[in-house]
Structures are given as C-alpha cells and as structure tokens.
Write a structure and sequence with these properties.
With about 220 residues, this protein is of the alpha/beta class. It contains six helices and six strands; from the N terminus they run E-H-H-E-H-E-H-E-E-H-E-H. It has one domain: 3-Layer(aba) Sandwich (Rossmann fold), CATH 3.40.50.1820. It has a six-stranded parallel sheet with strand order 2-1-3-4-5-6.
Length: about 220
Amino acid sequence: MSGFKYDRNRTIMKKQVLYIHGGESFWKHGDFIERLRTVDLWHLPTQDDLGGYKKWTSTLAEDLGEAYEVILPPMPNKQNAKFAEWSIWFERHFEYLQDGAILIGCSLGAMFLAKYLSQNDVPFRPGAVFLLAGAYKLPGFDETDCGDFLIAPEAVRPVVGKIDKLIIMHSQDDHVAPYEHGVALSKAIPEAEFVMFTDKNHFLIPVFPELLDHIHTLQ
C-alpha cells in the first residue's frame, strides 16, 4: 500500500527470522549472457533442482512454528545480482527488524551478509547470524561468478562486535562453494561456531532439522 510505514517501536512477540537466498553475479555482462544461453531450465514443471521435492526454505515458517515470524525477501535480479542493489533492498527492511532478529544467508546470501555486516552498521542488534555455504576471497578461487560480493575471511571479523552470535555452516560435499571456504572463515573468526556436515551438498535439501535445532536453542 502506497505510503505505508512500519513502526520499529511496536512490540513484536514473535522471534524474527530473515532469510536471504542465493543467486549469481557476474563481473562481465558477456558471462551473464552466456549463462542465460547454457543454464539448465530448472523451473519447468517436469523437473527442479532438488529432484522432485522442494527446498527446506519453502517450509521454514511452518517448521519453526508459531513462535517465529519468518521473512523471505526476494532479492533483486538474483540471476545477475549486484551488491549495491541487494544492500538497498536489505536496508528497506531495517525499520521492520528489531533487536534479536535472526539473519540467515545461504550461498550468495551468506556472502552478502558477511560483507554487508562487516562494512556497515544496522539499527538493530541481530541475535544471531547464520552463514551457510558461502564463498570468500581466497587464493586461486575463480571470482568470475561472484562479482562484488566477495570478501576476504579476515575482513569479516568486524561482524563479531555487532551481533550476539555467529554460526558458520558448510558441508564437505558442497559442489558450488568449496568446503575450504567455510573452514577459512571459521579460522579467521574463532569466536564463531563452525558446524560441519558431510552430506548436505550446497544445502539444496528438502529438510534441514539441524538448522531448526540451532535456531530453537538460541536464547
């Protein structure tokens, strides 16, 4: 509704959870065009990237339960994302989010949160930040499809003082963001909790009970 403004001073009884999804980003426009020409059509009715079932995010609100308010913002232009554009859209939610909100980023979403929160302050104090399957600026890593979302692991350290808890999750069999990136981030930020999996791939899974358990145990 035009002109509608949220009131950050109102009382929210439910625990807020905001999830930022993944995407792709390209330095060169030609690389993006080639991706459009060659990428599999994952959205057809006869197939999806999970082999016939939905990803865990589709039932996140239901699985967490009535005590949680789940926000799933569709980030702009996820097929060729730009950090500045995602920053604007993320900031639009600040007047709604309150102290204690849980932020979850997966893949490019994790990279976005890591970079944004390390370089900027927010008007609320997150209760926890989950960084799932992110890639970071490491020697030898191909930066072609990460654009301006990349940040060196040690440059993420300022996040620690701005939030209550940082949880890094990565699976050893991740075929998109190498497991070594999660390890590197955890070594750069030893205060963070590092949760390692062996069989969760790029978290393209139908259910994610381990994440639910972690969220439910947060105070």
